[in-house]
Structures are given as structure tokens and as C-alpha cells.
């Protein structure tokens, strides 16, 4: 079947379907769905904050505040994956530097997780499709290997020796270390 023939067949099928549903083409056009208003980040973060658990809010609130500062008045459908990466880099650079800092990777990871939570709710609310979710196309930074390690036997012997030979109650200190 050529293009015109398949187009005619498709139109005939649509007319038949509308007729079976009792809907005229004029009525279909007259009652076109009004476009859904897309909320801004300020509005949507406010709504999602009320819907998530206390623990989730505690973890993500500071990152949602950063999103509000950067994009508060923008519709949630506007940012691209590139802009999310740029915001993650900005958050990474502005992190609070602590003694055990690992270069801001956790800050960037938490920002991306906070945005993924926000966009999961947007998908569930029908504001965007799962395919249009920009946060899914932004990979989280890889976690660095842990710098934690167990004490060596020599270190443990040294700690025990100091505990049982010094302090106000060496017997109790030694006992506590053995139980721990």
C-alpha cells in the first residue's frame, strides 16, 4: 500500500473509532486538552518536601535549597543534563571542606540523588515522562575507594600495652579493650 493509501486507511480507522465512542470530530477538536501548567522548582520542591519522609527531607533539603538558588523560577522541565552536571560541579566546588574531605564527590552525588528524587515525583505526577527525565542521563560520580582499614596486630598490641600500663585503672582499661 502506498503512502496515500495507508494515510486514508488510518483516517478511516480513526473515524470508525470516534464513531464507536460516540464522539464527533468537531467535539474532539473543541474540547482539546488544555496544556498542563508545569511548576517551577520553587513550587515543586515545596510540594515534594511535604510528601517525602523526614529522613529523606533531612538529607536532600540542603541540596534542594541549592537548586532553588540556582533555578528557583525555572520550570522543572527546562534544565538539561548538561546544566545538571554544571550545577553538580558548582556544588562540588562550594562544599564545606572538612578534615576527611574526599574532593566533594559526595556533595555532587547527593545533589544528583536529590534531583532524581524530585524528578521521580514529577514522573509519578505525570508532569514529565520517564524518557524526558534529565537527571537519569547524568551519572553519579564514582565513589573513591575507602581509606579506612583495620588496625595492624602491632598497632593493637601497642594500644593494649599502653592501656594496661597507664591510666587510673589499667585493669579496667585492658578489660574494656578486650571486650571491644
From TrEMBL:
Protein name per its UniProtKB record: Core-binding (CB) domain-containing protein
Domain Core-binding (CB): 35-123
InterPro entries reported for this sequence: CB, DNA_brk_join_enz, Integrase_recombinase_N
SUPFAM superfamilies linked: DNA breaking-rejoining enzymes (SSF56349)
Keywords (A to Z) from UniProt: DNA-binding
Keyword Signal: no
Organism: Micromonospora sediminimaris
GO molecular-function term, one example from the UniProt record: DNA binding
PROSITE patterns reported in the protein's UniProt record: CB (PS51900)
Amino acid at each position: 500500500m502506498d503512502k496515500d493509501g495507508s494515510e486514508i486507511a488510518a483516517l478511516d480507522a480513526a473515524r470508525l473509532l470516534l464513531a464507536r465512542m460516540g464522539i464527533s470530530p468537531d467535539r474532539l477538536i473543541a474540547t482539546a486538552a488544555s496544556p498542563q501548567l508545569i511548576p517551577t522548582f520553587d513550587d515543586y520542591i515545596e510540594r515534594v518536601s511535604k510528601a517525602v519522609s523526614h529522613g529523606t527531607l533531612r538529607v536532600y533539603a540542603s541540596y534542594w535549597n541549592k537548586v532553588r538558588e540556582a533555578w528557583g523560577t525555572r520550570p522543572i522541565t527546562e534544565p538539561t543534563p548538561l546544566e545538571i552536571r554544571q550545577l553538580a560541579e558548582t556544588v562540588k566546588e562550594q562544599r564545606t571542606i572538612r578534615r576527611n574531605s574526599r574532593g566533594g564527590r559526595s556533595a555532587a552525588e547527593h545533589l544528583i540523588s536529590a534531583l532524581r528524587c524530585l524528578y521521580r515525583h514529577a514522573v509519578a505526577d505525570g508532569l514529565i515522562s520517564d524518557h524526558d527525565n534529565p537527571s537519569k542521563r547524568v551519572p553519579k560520580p564514582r565513589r573513591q575507594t575507602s581509606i579506612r582499614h583495620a588496625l595492624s596486630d602491632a598497632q593493637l598490641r601497642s594500644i593494649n600495652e599502653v592501656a594496661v600500663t597507664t591510666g587510673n585503672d589499667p585493669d579496667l582499661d585492658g578489660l574494656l579493650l578486650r571486650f571491644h
